[in-house]
Design goal:
Bound molecules: guanosine-5'-triphosphate, magnesium ion
Number of domains: 3
Order of helices and strands: EEEEHHEEEEEEEEEHEEEHEHEH
Oligomer: single chain
CATH architecture of the largest domain: 3-Layer(aba) Sandwich
CATH superfamily of the largest domain: P-loop containing nucleotide triphosphate hydrolases
CATH topology of the largest domain: Rossmann fold
Largest sheet: 6 strands, mixed
Strand content: 15-25%
CATH class of the largest domain: Alpha Beta
């Protein structure tokens, strides 16, 4: 290893290792004699040649790319594995003329199970067709065929399974399973049909086909709070301000096309998950803008944050429209515990609009600026109050709470 060496007061004081090029006596700038090098130089890391390594950052996907990765609906056809055929055979051995039937049963077909995995975040890797593994046929010498292996399909937490539009399962806990299709039973070998009346049965049955089903999987993300607002109200900016999430922010409407979840961290290690969903406009229930289908992602939210843009005239109308659209999607959705957040308070006409809003609503309005960070702490504290209220309610009802 090559070193750069300093000669000071007759001692060799050496610095951190340098590159492999050559060894220099620093004062003379000449290569250092190899014997001296061997006796006095220790190995350390090279500060100059060491690559500047920064911490690995999570890759940020554009909204367009995210749409490819974030899939929240799938229709899937499931066919369970077919049972194996039963065997028809007779025992054959020297000096044993009537060995009797020894055809084994076929193995059962493999089932298909939908299983929740906390690591999976979208349905993008779920295929549109699944076929279970067939059972193996039975053999002679009473050998039973091997059962088909169970096929597991990993889905995210919060997946709802529907059949013909009717909900059949709600998979909201990690590790929860739902049998999408049972495998068929294996056939019986001729040994099974041995009886006092029939000493040499020739009957063996074939395996049953697996269950066939068409199911719809719908993902409803699990978050404690859901942010609802008009496009450009600053929902994504607010999520960036209160959490580590990095949804795209831009000055044009409908920047956010997919829901984003950010986790707000508190000092006592309590975590509140907040979901940012695409903007809603007046008439969204008639499929205007991006429609209302993404509202299923806030169906499970325990409380809502109405984000109102204070820079526009009459912010109360925004709130009314948002509540109206939520009611069109699901009755009573707008009555959930909620907070009203007035964003863009840093803009000149915002304080006047805030007063107008306050006069029209009985609920507390929290003015914030996601851009400058003004009053964001108050919002976080209020969020925590809502969260604590939810935890208290669930504890009183004896239900398990969703914790992140
Ligand atoms: N002055 C000011 N501008 C803000 C504030 N918050 C957001 N903005 C700006 O408003 C624009 C829209 O912000 P976004 O966070 O993308 O709004 P959004 O509600 O997520 O919009 P969509 O995703 O389209 O629904 C951006 O240009 C932001 O810089 C704020 O507090 N003050
Ligand atoms: Mg957005």
């Amino acid at each position: 290893m090559m070193q750069r060496i300093l000669l000071e007061e007759g001692k060799f004081i050496w610095r951190k290792t340098l590159c492999r090029k050559s060894v220099f006596h620093s004062s003379l700038n000449k290569p250092f004699p190899p014997n001296v090098l061997q006796s006095s130089v220790f190995a350390t890391s090279c500060i100059i040649c060491a690559k500047a390594r920064s911490l690995r950052k999570n890759r940020e996907y554009s909204e367009k790319k995210l749409t490819r990765y974030f899939v929240d609906y799938r229709q899937i056809s499931f066919i369970g594995g077919r049972g194996g055929k039963g065997a028809c055979s007779f025992h054959s051995e020297p000096r044993k003329e009537f060995g009797g039937p020894d055809g084994g049963n076929g193995g059962d077909g493999g089932s298909i199970i939908i299983k929740v995995d906390q690591q999976v975040k979208s349905l993008s890797l779920v295929a549109s067709r699944y076929r279970g593994v067939d059972g193996e046929p039975g053999g002679s010498k009473n050998c039973t065929g091997r059962n088909g292996k169970t096929t597991y399909i990993r889905v995210p937490m919060g997946t709802v399974v529907k059949e013909n539009g009717t909900q059949v399962s709600d998979l909201s806990r990690n590790g929860q399973e739902y049998v999408a299709a049972f495998g068929g039973l294996g056939g019986k070998g001729n040994r099974f049909f041995l009886s006092n009346e029939t000493r040499a049965p020739l009957t063996a049955t074939s395996g049953e086909p697996g269950q066939e089903r068409i199911l719809q999987l719908e993902l409803r993300i699990l978050a404690h709070a859901g942010m609802v607002g008009f496009p450009n109200a600053g929902k994504s900016s607010l999520l960036r301000a209160i959490s580590e999430a990095k949804p795209a922010v831009a000055a044009y409407p409908f920047t956010t096309l997919n829901p984003h979840v950010g986790v707000v961290q508190y000092r006592d290690h309590e975590q509140v998950a907040v979901a940012d969903i695409p903007g809603i406009i007046r008439g969204a229930h008639e499929n205007r803008g991006l429609g209302l289908s993404f509202l299923r992602h806030i169906e499970r939210c325990r409380f809502l944050l109405f984000v109102i843009d204070l820079s526009v005239e009459n912010p109360f109308a925004q709130l009314e429209d948002l509540k109206f659209e939520l009611e069109q999607y699901e009755k009573g959705l707008s009555n959930r515990p909620h907070a009203i957040v007035g964003n863009k308070i840093d803009l000149p006409n915002a304080p006047a609009n805030l007063e107008v809003l306050r006069q029209n609503v009985s609920h507390r309005v929290i003015p914030v600026s996601a851009l400058t960070g003004q009053n964001v702490e108050e919002l976080m504290l209020h969020l925590r109050e809502l969260y604590d209220g939810y935890i208290q309610m669930e504890d009183m009802a004896g239900r398990q709470t969703d914790r992140w």
